[in-house]
Design brief:
single chain; 76 residues; mainly alpha
Length: 76
């Protein structure tokens, strides 16, 4: 059973990141770019990008689905 408090906590955390202009980028973005030589930045590194990047922003429903899936799988 999924705890609604955990769902709210994760949703609040994502909102917190968005309010501070943080964006989550999948590591494959860096591996597919010749600029990175297949080496992804380490945690805490600062990265300057000058690219034309197309991204799909998840809907509220997609985010809720991902949160539910995450919480279901974390207890397994």
């Amino acid at each position: 059973m999924i705890n609604p408090n955990e769902v709210k906590l994760l949703r609040d955390f994502l909102d917190y990141l968005e309010e501070r202009d943080y964006t989550i980028i999948h590591n494959s973005f860096f591996k597919q770019s010749k600029s990175w030589y297949n080496d992804t930045p380490k945690k805490g590194d600062k990265v300057m990008l000058n690219v034309n990047f197309k991204a799909e922003i998840p809907s509220e429903g997609d985010i809720d689905d991902r949160i539910q899936l995450f919480l279901k799988n974390k207890d397994v």
